[in-house]
Amino acid sequence: MNSQQPIANQSEATVEPVPPSLDSSTSKLVYVYLSSSESATIDELHAALDVEKLTLYPILNTLMTANLVTQSEGRYSCQNHSICEMGS
């Protein structure tokens, strides 16, 4: 029997493409993390990604300037989280 059938309960996930305007791998990493989570503080990003806080601030500013990320009450999240969730 060589028939190939999908495994039961296998979900097909799509991934939101990383915007081509993001040049650095760290910017891409932060964007992907935020697009796959509800929101995160600087401390949470630092702990989860092992990226220095002094590096995170300019990256987050760049993402906010590009309207990819928003900041509210010290938490950063994907600009349009519902769209990011559909793509994750």
Task: Tell me what the structure shows.
This protein has helices at residues 25-36, 42-49, 53-65, 81-87; strands at 69-72, 75-78. It is mainly alpha-helical and 88 residues long. The protein has a single domain, classed as Arc Repressor Mutant, subunit A. A two-stranded antiparallel sheet has the order 1-2. The chain is globular and about 25 Å long. The N and C termini lie far apart (35 Å). Mean pLDDT is 82; it is low at 9-14.
The CATH topology comes to Arc Repressor Mutant, subunit A
- Helix count equals 4
Question: What share of the residues does DSSP label as strand, in percent?
Answer: 5-15%
Q: Provide the low-confidence segments as ranges.
A: 9-14
Q: Supply the CATH architecture.
A: Orthogonal Bundle
Q: In CATH, what is the class?
A: Mainly Alpha
Find the structural class using helix and strand composition. mainly alpha
Q: How far apart are the first and last residues' alpha carbons, in Å? A: 35 Å
Biased composition (Polar residues): 1-13
Protein name: Transcription regulator TrmB N-terminal domain-containing protein
InterPro entries: Tscrpt_reg_TrmB_N, WH-like_DNA-bd_sf, WH_DNA-bd_sf
Organism: Halalkalicoccus jeotgali (strain DSM 18796 / CECT 7217 / JCM 14584 / KCTC 4019 / B3)
